[in-house]
Design a protein that fits this description.
The chain is of the alpha+beta class. Helices cover 49% and strands 12% of the residues. The chain is built from four helices and three strands, in the order ααββααβ. It has a three-stranded mixed beta sheet with strand order 1-2-3, covered by helices on one side.
Length: 83
């Protein structure tokens, strides 16, 4: 008998893992802004990247927000907003 659950389980892991996404975001931020951030300084949830850094760093990230989002989309990270 065909079980739809087994069929849909193979599509569950098609995207990148959260750890891989964090590494890609950190590398992209470093390449654009020359800012070395730790993996604890950001959180990715439902296509939203939340940076847990001071306001000076956040402002420099927001200035390059559109470029950063384009770069991340090209690298396969689905980002809809940066906070």
């Amino acid at each position: 008998m065909f079980n739809i659950k087994d069929y849909l389980d193979k599509f569950k892991d098609l995207g990148l893992s959260n750890k891989e996404n964090k590494e890609i975001v950190l590398a992209t931020v470093y390449s654009l802004l020359k800012l070395k951030l730790s993996s604890d300084s950001l959180e990715i949830k439902d296509g939203v990247i939340i940076f847990k850094v001071n306001s000076i760093i956040k402002n420099s990230i927001y200035i390059k927000k559109t470029i950063l989002m384009k770069e991340l989309k090209q690298k396969g990270v689905n980002v809809y907003e940066i906070r």
